[in-house]
Each structure stands twice: as C-alpha cells, then as structure tokens.
Amino acid sequence: MEIDHIAMYVNDLELAKDFFVTYFGAISNEGYHNFKTDFRSYFLSFDGGTKLEIMQRPEMENSVKSLARTGYIHIAFHTGSKENVDALTRRLQADGYEVVSGPRTTGDGYYESCIVGIEGNQIELTI
Question: In the 8-state DSSP scheme, what is residue 96?
Fold first, then answer.
C-alpha cells in the first residue's frame, strides 16, 4: 500500500495554496467548491507524486497548535542537498517564518531544519 494524499484544513485557502506553490513548487488543481456546504479544497501535487489536499469550510475549530502535541506534527520536504536546506531555511526566515531548529545534523544522521509555516503548521526541510 501507499499513501494517496495527506489533507489539512486551513483558514485561508488561497494563502495556503500560494505558500506551497511559492516555497515548495506545488502544482495546484483548479480547486473544488461544494456550493451546498461551502466546502472548498485544492489538491497540490509535488515532485515524486506526493499530494496534499488543503481544505476549508465555514465552521472549523481553530485550536492552538503547540509543537509538542499528539497527532500529525509536520510535513517533511526533500530539498536535494544541504545547500538547498540552508537556502530555503534562510528564505523562509527572511520572509517572516519562524525557524524552530537547524539547519543541523540530528542525532540519527538527518540534515534538516524545521520552520513554523502557514497557519502554525511545522514543516521540516531535509536533504
């Protein structure tokens, strides 16, 4: 088996789409809108076939997203090299996103950094 896609609710659908397109090279579909329920979504496709569905609906709970919580904690992106990890980390930081760790080599040998991206969601950048 393989994972088909990961989904996340967001408050600002267009801003979230633009974030993943701008920084991670996502390709977006035309979007979906259920006029009866006002549910909206985009499927974002990344190199290698990975897909992320970002969704929005009128009534959503917007809980605080602590970095140490149960459940899904981050999305990790391969960047291809240490230099790419470093450059993208600097770019995101310069654009106002918080860097919570790295770039660094972790105890288990990964070279990575972690940032708090769109709407408080953690994103890991790795080789």
Answer: T
Do 78 and 121 lie in one domain? The reply is yes
CATH of the domain at 103: 3.10.180.10
Position 3 pLDDT exceeds 90: no
> How big is the chain, counted in residues?
127
Query: Are 123 and 68 a contacting pair, CB within 8 Å?
Result: no
| Per-residue pLDDT tens over the stretch 47-90 | 999 999 999 999 888 887 787 777 788 999 999 999 999 999 99
Q: Please report the sign of the dihedral spanned by the C-alpha atoms of residue 102, residue 108, residue 111, residue 117.
A: negative
Domain with 96, as residue range(s), is 74-126
pLDDT at 75: 95
Domain membership of residue 69 (yes or no) is no
Reported as type and span, the H/E element at residue 33 is strand 32-34
